[in-house]
User: What shape does this take?
Amino acid sequence: MMKIIFATGNKDKMAEIREIMEDLGYECSSMKEEGIESDPEENGTSFEENAVIKAQAVYDIAKARGIEAIVMADDSGLEIDCLNGEPGIYSARYLGRDVPYSVKNADLIKRTDESGDPDRTARFVCAVAAFFPDGTHEVVRGTVEGVVAHTPSGNRGFGYDPIFFLPDRGCTTADLTNEEKNAISHRGNALRMMKEILVKKYHS
Assistant: This one.
């Protein structure tokens, strides 16, 4: 059975990955479940570069241990147009890694308000990189468009979900159920694109 190792310890992320990939019949595990520790410096200048850095680091460790697997990693964040794309690739580190997202979200709403931008357009971006057993790799980008909410809303999701408003749904991504969010999310979109690559590579 083909194995996928995802460079994360996030249970919510693994649940989403398993849900999307389950019909391929692959075994999906996190690097934590495989006993792999990896924390490479994310010094890329794009989501794609950082995803590749994280995936390759875990791939190299797995290969050195004789584990044959597809190794995936993602890098994601929020881009706000009136803030020149901030926080972008620094989304997790914005204002400091240990700062609560309630504080980060309040700051981004304040800055968006102060910009005077009437559109408040923004997007969630997710790049997913995959290294294959033959040493080749692919990287894809998924996005979902929205606007910065005037006030936080919703208690589902995590991170910037409470301030990411979807005009066509009339709510934030933190108001959506996990199933609704996975169907439209940036990570869900990127994972489905990667799934298509896997199908062509191994099932065509």
Notes: The chain has five helices and eight strands. The chain has a mean pLDDT of 94. Residues 3-202 form a domain with the Maf protein fold (CATH 3.90.950.10).
